[in-house]
Amino acid sequence: MIMEVKPFKAFRYNPQVVGDVGRCIAPPYDVISADEQEQLHRKSQYNVAYITKGKTSPRDGDGHNVYTRAAEYLQKWISQGALKQDDKESIYGYVQDFEINSVAFQRLTFIALGKLEDFGKVVRPHEQVFEKPMLDRLNLERATRAKFGLVFMLYDDPQGVADRIIEKAATREPLVDFVDDQGVRHRLFAITAAEEVTAITRMMADKSCIIADGHHRYTTGLKYLRESGNPAAKYQMLAFTNTRQKGLVVLATHRLVGGIKDFEPARFLACLKESFTLKSFKFGPDAAAKDMARGEMLAHMRSRHEKDETSLGIYMGDGAFHVATLKDTSRMAAAAPDMSEAWRALDVSALQKLILEGVLSFDEPMMGNPEHVDYVKDVPNAVNELIAQVDAGHRQIAFLTNPVKMQHLAAVTDAGERMPHKSTYFFPKMYTGLTIQKLEV
Fold it and tell me: Rounded to two decimals, what is the model's pTM?
């Protein structure tokens, strides 16, 4: 089995028709809030969110709905010339420049068609997927016979073959160049030289890839291929990033929990003491004291994480921040006997098995229901927003997690396992609409 990649002729926005292409590109559908949906739709009549995050209507039915409208938008934009297919087969270099805490990073990625493989040695998932969003993406692909969002794939190449080719391409005029609302600069370049395309395809031939983001989109591709028999669906538009580059940044995904009947913080903490050692950082009514306690909690979490201990931050609005550190590995071995040591060592695994399932009795549907669990990316001010949600009474508990280390992610996938839902947040997100793959029948 090999990772087979090849160039393709993407459909891309035509600036002569749409104007500023940056106004037509959007974040992945699953991170777009209702307010952001409105903003994206107002940016341009051609914004890809009309297709990937369309509005539902009370009058929707089998013959007219968000998916049929998406197909209509796609065909209309192609006929108007707003979307135009490239003349040359290309591998596309995708460069993202960004900062975290005033430190500059650059992530280099190439976009190509990859042959769809069942999960195994060649393609390894690292997270569980929810059924509802997978069905949503499948219905969109059925209606449009196209792929819009990128599946973010990780591969390991110490030689940096593709990275050097992308860096060379980045000295030329970009096809697309825009800065998003988070200050991330996105640039797209065409790589068409035969020797460079061949160098990338040969380099990838013996690679095993981990899906970093886009599990639902990849799973949708497999399901659509099986049900449609469309030969073009054997290949999916994928985005590949080398794990050896410094621009590969993984941040945490926190949890906001609510809807717990008869919840009492003191009783909850007492239940946690069976499996965790607790350290509390108390504060009074003074805001500065609260900020200091918050900082102490985060620092303690990080220090435990650096020592490869399983540690979580907890806030319940009870006048303190808490850090729960797993007492010993036997607790997780008993809770998840069929999983590997690598899986059981994850913060998010302990949170799911010992706390959400073990103490709070949450089941799978509840963990997929935003009324019970919200999954919050660790963007700037995320921790403050989590605290504010609890203080306002909108949620009962904020769970703060540490980012998953790359070696732990690799160890879990090597064991053939998947992490709990929303375990990782690769920053920044790869935007949708830079390239579109139309499946011809």
Answer: 0.83
